[in-house]
Amino acid sequence: AMLRLRLLTWDVKDTLLRLRRPVGQSYAAEARAQGLRVQPEALGRAFREAYGAQSRRFPNYGRGQGLSSRQWWVDVVKQAFVLSGVQDGAALTALAEKLYRDYCGSHNWEVLPGAEETLSRCRQRGFRMGVVSNFDNRLENILSQCSLRHHFDFVLTSEAAGVAKPDGRIFEAALRLGGVPPEQAAHIGDDYTRDYRAARAVGMHSFLLRTAGHGPEPEVPPEHVLPTLSHLLARIEK
């Protein structure tokens, strides 16, 4: 039976947009421009470590603990360089502020294959559209710079919602913004737990974007899996 859907909600990172190159490479290039020598691979590992520690200590960009997401990120970037052996505190603050700004637009992000066309076709079919993303408040700007913002009726970030996927409350907030009950909505994302399962837990439909190279994951019915975004409308309309 054809799904009676009225609202589609979308994850962003690795669903609609991806980083143009690994974080370690981007950070190292910017550091070189400031006269600092850092190995991209070491910096990438240090970034993952700093990001993980900060996320455990201050979940969801420190939203509940009085940190601004800007400060949260600047601290992560500085810590990544410190862990990579860079000592110069003053240089690091300037560098971290610059990198925070650099990730605000299309300079560091690119649209995934099939995203633009799929979003346009979904719009033409009359679906309401929204973003549900574990992201900070730069997301509106990033989507605008990458020419995707106009597809969406709303953009809901975990920073704005005060809760992050897989917490069902962020999906409930999206359903209120979209004005539909959960059975008339579907979420599209690339993460089994945060996207596919979390949306289903509140009664929504969901589709898992599973591009080549994904590791072994829990079984998902084939009709819920998208090998590419271009498969979405066939899945919805069959």
Present the secondary structure layout.
Blueprint lengths: L6 E4 L6 E3 L3 H11 L6 H18 L1 H4 L6 H15 L5 H14 L6 E3 L3 H10 L3 E6 L5 H7 L8 E4 H4 L6 H11 L6 E5 L2 H10 L3 E5 L15 E2 L5 H6 L1
Parallel strand pairs: 1-4, 1-6, 4-5, 6-7, 7-8
Antiparallel strand pairs: 2-3
CATH class of the largest domain: Alpha Beta
Mean pLDDT: 94
Summed up, the domain count is 2
Largest sheet: 6 strands, parallel
Radius of gyration: 19 Å
Query: Can you write the helix and strand succession as a string?
Result: EEHHHHHEHEHEHHEHEEH
Sheet with most strands: strand arrangement: 5-4-1-6-7-8
Could you tell me the strand content as a percent range? 5-15%
CATH architecture assignment name of the largest domain: 3-Layer(aba) Sandwich
CATH superfamily of the largest domain: HAD superfamily/HAD-like
Fraction of helical residues: 40-55%
By secondary-structure content and strand pairing, the structural class works out as: alpha/beta
Shape: elongated
Distance between the termini: 7 Å
β-strand number: 8
Low-confidence stretches: none
